[in-house]
Write a structure and sequence with these properties.
- The protein is 32% helix and 19% strand.
- By secondary structure, the protein is an alpha+beta fold.
- It folds into 2 domains: 79 residues; 93 residues.
- A hairpin with a 6-residue loop joins strand 3 and strand 4.
- Helix 1 packs antiparallel against helix 2, helix 1 packs antiparallel against helix 4 and helix 2 runs antiparallel to helix 3.
- The two termini are 39 Å apart.
């Protein structure tokens, strides 16, 4: 049985079998990891700021957490061994309590698709003055919102029936003047991730 003087925030064991938790045992609140039986406690963070609310990635390779390092609460992520810390949020509002979602890869791929759409040269678009980049990005944002709301079927339908045809140069609905197979592969990968969640 593990006893602690102070209460601790903990994350259920990740795929790696370790429990991530925050504790004041080093002075200020830091992120630690331990075996499921409470042994082999190892600090992952060590700084003067408060680090807490760890959450394992689904594959156990990363831990997201909250820290006040820049003066307000922000979300950070690091490798499971505490190396390679990255700050994910940068603003003056308070972010806390990160949580990994099964649709995270789909959201990341859609954000990448949106960036790629924005980067398309005007010469790759039919009638570039018609605001088609913005319209596509709005459609992608709508799909992201559907995914966040758990409306996976609706997101798949929108991707396959509304967005993909506009980005497939072989489609009569295409807004592209030349093929871009990478974009189509990204859409197909997002659809595959969403179908796995049904």
């Amino acid at each position: 049985m593990l006893l602690a003087e102070q209460s601790a925030w903990a994350a259920f064991p990740g795929a790696n079998g370790k429990i991530a938790f925050s504790s004041t045992q080093g002075g200020d609140e830091e992120i630690f990891v331990m075996d499921a039986d409470g042994t082999d406690q190892i600090p992952l963070t060590d700084n003067d700021a408060l680090d807490l609310l760890p959450a394992w990635s689904p594959d156990g390779s990363k831990t997201a957490f909250t820290s006040i390092r820049d003066g307000d609460w922000e979300i950070f992520v690091m490798n499971a061994d505490g190396t390679v810390e990255d700050q994910l949020t940068f603003n003056t509002t308070q972010e806390a309590g990160p949580d990994w979602q099964p649709f995270g890869p789909a959201i990341a791929a859609l954000e990448d698709l949106k960036a790629e759409t924005n980067a398309l040269p005007g010469s790759d678009l039919k009638d570039p003055a018609a605001g088609r980049k913005g319209a596509l990005c709005d459609k992608i944002d709508a799909v992201i919102a559907q995914i966040g709301a758990g409306e996976y079927r609706g997101a798949i339908t929108k991707l396959l029936q509304d967005i993909r045809p506009k980005l497939d140069s072989s489609s009569r609905q295409s807004w592209l003047t030349s093929p871009n197979p990478i974009i189509l592969v990204k859409i197909d990968n997002v659809v595959a991730v969403l179908q796995s969640l049904l």
